[in-house]
Structures are given as structure tokens and as C-alpha cells.
Design a protein that fits this description.
The protein is an alpha/beta fold. The protein is built from 12 helices and 12 strands. Helix 8 crosses helix 12. The two termini are about 45 Å apart.
């Protein structure tokens, strides 16, 4: 096996490469027609508006929603903020006395921080633990919602670090039974698992273009219309997107999001089967290289391309990444990867700190090849063995220096 000169990208939970078909769909809207979709007074503007409408319908179809329920945003972080803060602020302004907002300890930081921010506005944040497999205890959720009137429940569909798939239908049913709104951050789920907003009883659902082989800087928020969910906008402007998200729509990015959503819907099952095969091949090769590795969280309820792997022998994830620079992986959420503390998600699972620090997040995607997973397993195995030898020799070196 020869080593590739190109880095091996196994960080598809942080972002995905733009599909060439998406790039092709976007290009005319930068070059041939760069008009503002809001400029409907002239032909170019109307054509851009029509392209946006087509893309909106493609996004809606991915989650079995109505196009009128899709609000275009800059990405899932904005969508999550708009869903959580917008719902809370509208409820307060409308005289709704419910103040409890419930979420999980393993949520993305933008959800946790949005819920935390609401405490300063008189709301009651409730952050529930998860089981050791990363899944929510539905009985705990039921008891929590029964204990006090709850405005909103926000639970991530697929975790961005450990890849576990929550039981959204059961969570949505529980939220509805207690009269709460249900929001899910589906950025990591879209295109990986089927989503139907009616089946899961979602009121609000967040999406991100760059997680589904689309461009960065574009996303969407599903806002249910019947019965209607009302939100307060985060900022003021020209009233675009039903007044919920003002600002000129970036037609090329919107078209790219739509095309990425179309491909994801059409090819989801094919992608999942191929990616699961690559994941299993990688794990088998890595187990041969590194005896004693362990996979964190639930093994069955997990998206096809995800592995959260703890390495044995006290070798840290940072040491592994430094020892195998040709492999692009991460220690956890890319939004907080510069932090030296162990991932809050792994801590929420109750993992010992040493195991959390020895964990790598692997994200295999649509364009990962069998050769790449073989090379990555060999490179990480070699890095682990070098680190182990270094740890063994270091005490002897120190002893010799002392004598």
C-alpha cells in the first residue's frame, strides 16, 4: 500500500466537501445571473426568485414539509438560535406563562448556550443527562415535563460527536402530550437518516448546507404552519423570509442548498450502505492495528459514517493527530476543537477523563474511498505504536538521567 500525498479526510461531521453537482448548479447564479432574488421588478430578479423557490421546495421535500414552512438562514447555528430564542421571546410577549426550556447535556454548544442565555430573560433552562450510550431516557423526559409546564423541548436528532440517533418520534409524542413545542437540530441527521416532520411531530427543525455536501453559509429552519408556530425574529430588516430572517438571500448558496437536499433525498439509502461498508472496513483494519480500542456510545443506533473511538495505553487524541498528520480527524465538535478540556459530550456519557482525552471522532462520507480508510487505519495504528514506545522509553530515559 502506497501513501497518498493528499490528506485523508475523515472529518465529515465537521463539514462535507461540496458535491460537484452542487457546484455546477450554483455556478450560473454567480456568473450568468447575479441578481437579487428580491428584485422582482426585472427579469433577472424574477428568475433568481424562481430559483430560490425551487430550492426551497427541494429542502422541504427532504424533510416532508411544505415549502412555505422553510425559512432560509445562514446555517444551523442561526436556525437553532432563532428556533429557541424566537419561540421563547414570542411566547413571553404573547402572555404565555410557560418558562421552562428543556434540552440535553450532549447538545451542540449553540443549543446549550441559547438555552442558557434565556435564563437572563426569566426562563428556566433544564439540561437533562443522557444514558451511558448517549440516548435520552424517555421516562426521565416524561417525568420532567410532567413536573412543570414546559414551553420547548430541544433535542438533537443525530449527535455531532458520537453519531447516536435519538428516538425523535417518541420525543415528539412526549413533548406534544405535555403541551410543549418540539425543536430538533437535524444538521447531522439530514441526508443520513429519513426525516418526516409530521411523523416526529416537530414544530421546529434546523438544517445546515455544509453538512449535506452543500455550501457553507446557508441553512434552513422548518417552522410548522398548521397549527402555526410563532417566533420573534432575532434581528430587524427588510422583512424577508416571512419577517423572520431579514436580509438579501444569497441565490447561489440557496440553489446549492436545494441541489444538495435533492441529491441527499434521492441517494440517502445508497450513501448509507456504501458509507457503512467503509466504516466497518476502517474499524476492522484499525482493530488489527490497535488491539483494545473501544467504540463510545450506542453501536446500533448510530449513523453510518460515525465512529467515536477511544485508544488504549494512555495515548491522547492530540498525540495521535500529531503522529498522523496526513489523516484529517478531530477530537470532537469542530466548533470547540481548540479547547483543551475533554468534550462535553464525552463527559456527559460519564467516560473517565483519560478515555475522553484518548478519543478520536471519525466521520466517513460520500467520497471516502476504500484505499483511504485502509491508509488512515495504518497511519493511526503506526502513530499509536510510536506513542506507546515513547511512553515506555520515557521513564527509562528519566531514570538514566537521574543516575
Amino acid at each position: 500500500m502506497t501513501r497518498s500525498n493528499r490528506p485523508i479526510y475523515l472529518d465529515n461531521h465537521a463539514t462535507t466537501p461540496v458535491d460537484p453537482r452542487v457546484l455546477a448548479a450554483m455556478r450560473p447564479w454567480w456568473e450568468s445571473n447575479f441578481a437579487n432574488p428580491g428584485s422582482v421588478e426585472h427579469e433577472m430578479g424574477r428568475a433568481a426568485e424562481k430559483a430560490v423557490d425551487v430550492a426551497r421546495a427541494q429542502v422541504a421535500e427532504l424533510i416532508a414539509a411544505d415549502p412555505a414552512e422553510i425559512i432560509l438562514t445562514s446555517g444551523a447555528t442561526e436556525s437553532n438560535n432563532l428556533a429557541i430564542k424566537g419561540a421563547a421571546r414570542f411566547a413571553r410577549a404573547s402572555g404565555n406563562e410557560r418558562r421552562r426550556v428543556v434540552t440535553l447535556a450532549t447538545e451542540h454548544k449553540c443549543v446549550l448556550e441559547s438555552v442558557k442565555d434565556l435564563a437572563a430573560e426569566g426562563f428556566e433552562p433544564v439540561v437533562l443527562p443522557v444514558r451511558t450510550d448517549g440516548l435520552l431516557d424517555l421516562d426521565l423526559l416524561d417525568a420532567t415535563l410532567a413536573a412543570a409546564p414546559t414551553l420547548l423541548v430541544s433535542v438533537m436528532a443525530v449527535n455531532n460527536e458520537i453519531g447516536v440517533i435519538q428516538d425523535l418520534a417518541a420525543i415528539g409524542e412526549t413533548a406534544k402530550r405535555h403541551g410543549a413545542l418540539f425543536h430538533t437540530d437535524a444538521a447531522q441527521a439530514a441526508g443520513r437518516v429519513p426525516l418526516d416532520v409530521a411523523e416526529i411531530r416537530a414544530d421546529l427543525l434546523s438544517l445546515s448546507g455544509h453538512k449535506i455536501y452543500g455550501p457553507k453559509g446557508i441553512g434552513a429552519l422548518y417552522v410548522r404552519r398548521r397549527p402555526r408556530v410563532r417566533l420573534a425574529p432575532l434581528f430587524s430588516g427588510g422583512g424577508q423570509e416571512r419577517g423572520l430572517r431579514s436580509g438579501t438571500l444569497p441565490a447561489p448558496l440557496v440553489v446549492g442548498l436545494g441541489e444538495a437536499a435533492r441529491i441527499a433525498k434521492d441517494e440517502m439509502l445508497l450513501d448509507a450502505g456504501r458509507i457503512a461498508g467503509q466504516r466497518d472496513r476502517f474499524l476492522a483494519a484499525l482493530q488489527a492495528e490497535v488491539p483494545g480500542i473501544e467504540v463510545n456510545a450506542n453501536r446500533e443506533r448510530r449513523v453510518a459514517g460515525n465512529l467515536s473511538i477511544a485508544f488504549p495505553g494512555g495515548v491522547t487524541a492530540q498525540a495521535l493527530m500529531e503522529g498522523a498528520p496526513e489523516v484529517c480527524v478531530s477530537t470532537g465538535s469542530a466548533c470547540s476543537s481548540a479547547e483543551v478540556e475533554p468534550s462535553h459530550v464525552l463527559q456527559a456519557l460519564g467516560l473517565p477523563e483519560a478515555r475522553a482525552r484518548s478519543t478520536l471522532r471519525i466521520g466517513i462520507g460520500r467520497f471516502t474511498s476504500p484505499a483511504e480508510v485502509d491508509l488512515a487505519a495504518a497511519a493511526l495504528g503506526a502513530a499509536w505504536r510510536r506513542a506507546i514506545r515513547s511512553r515506555i522509553s520515557a521513564p527509562a530515559d528519566r531514570k538514566g538521567a537521574a543516575e
